[in-house]
Amino acid sequence: MSSSAKLKRLYQLAVSNIVAIAAVPFAASALLKAAELGPEELLARRRALRPRATDIDILVVNCSLFAPTPSFADMIVNRYNLRKDVRNVHLAGMGCSAGLISVGLARNLLQVAPRGSNALVVSTETITPNYYMGKERAMLLPNCLFRMGGAAVLLSTNGANARFRLARVVRTLTGAQDGAYRCVYQEEDDRANVGINLSKDLMSVAGDALKANITAMGPLVLPASEQLLFALSFIARKVVSRGIKPYIPDFRTAFEHFCIHAGGRAVIDELQRSLTLSDEQVEASRMTLHRFGNTSSSSLWYELAYVEAKGRMRRGDRVWMIGFGSGFKCNSAAWECIRPPAAPGGADGPWAACVHRYPVDIPDVLKH
């Protein structure tokens, strides 16, 4: 298979700001076989895309726990014979929110690149080299929760084939606080087994990071009415009484769809409660966690693919992606749908041939 043909297959897993979405589970060595997935006719459904290796100007790859030499980014350049002047970056150790960090980095690079440039973002994770073999309960949980997966995203300053428009990327880092810094921490146990230690304070730390991120995100996306109510509540608490309950803005007035990082059931439950979201609005996150597990930075793209496969995406709809990661980070991205998929139903994505079986009932977990 020629390099252009291989790259053409990889584009079938990509989005052009966004052109298409697909995400499939694969191990570390299978990352470079992504081009083998999907039938040839997919390209025709992507609005006459004719990608070539020379089309890629920027390549950003993120994989938190596996950082080989040469890097994943170098491997992709080698396999698809990308140009010698391609700007390639590999991000490691950035946690589950690295996908949105990569999108933000690609956006920044595109802003200083010539008009019509293309940036390919590949978000993946592999747990194989980091499987914990010890007995510490706090370090065994990731073995049960995390899964391998990945997704490719194509961003461009050429809007001819655009599916979505990237409106905002807001990043929050609370790593200056020791508790936040160590709540998701790779370390050795007393028997020298390496693993990821998830602190009991994780939910509290995530909540604080989310509050800081919402505070920065709100003024950028909320309608004036919600901002006014929030301002009045803030003034009342300052002037009248601290006992007045603070007003929580209704982000449902700013977004139609919510893609919450499928980090765990407790994370999704807490965000649904805090943001007063309906069951349907968190359905994509729950079903992604149910079917694929926590695929780290790529989980948000599985969720967006679910919304599209269900036929719920409409022109003008707004999407809020929320990612959490070690450090501790909370990152957000706001998208606007420019062109819904031509054939909803998951015919060519990770939900192909099974989306009709979802949602499924997930029983409550009882604590003893």
UniProtKB/TrEMBL annotation:
MF (Gene Ontology): fatty acid elongase activity
Record CDD domains: CHS_like
Domain FAE residue range list: 42-239
Stored Gene3D superfamilies: 3.40.47.10
GO biological process: fatty acid biosynthetic process
Annotated keywords: Acyltransferase, Transferase
EC primary class: transferase
GO cellular component: membrane
Enzyme Commission numbers on file: 2.3.1.199
Source superkingdom: Eukaryota
Beta-ketoacyl-[acyl-carrier-protein] synthase III C-terminal domain: residues covered: 256-336
Family named by the database record: Belongs to the thiolase-like superfamily. Chalcone/stilbene synthases family.
PANTHER family listed in its UniProt record: 3-KETOACYL-COA SYNTHASE
The protein, known as: very-long-chain 3-oxoacyl-CoA synthase
Organism: Triticum urartu
